[in-house]
Amino acid sequence: VRKLPVKPLGEGKCGENVSWILHDTGVLEISGTGAMTDYTYHKYGETAAPWTLLRDSIKKVVIADGITNVGNYAFYSCPNLKEVAFAENGVLKEIGEGAFGYCGLETITLPATVEVLGKNALYYNDSLKTVDFEADSKLTTIGDYAFRNCTSLESVYIPDGVTKIGAVILYSANTNAVLSVADETYAETYAVKAGY
Question: Which of 78, 82, 184, 196 is the most exposed place for a label (fewest CB within 10 A)?
Answer without folding.
Answer: 184
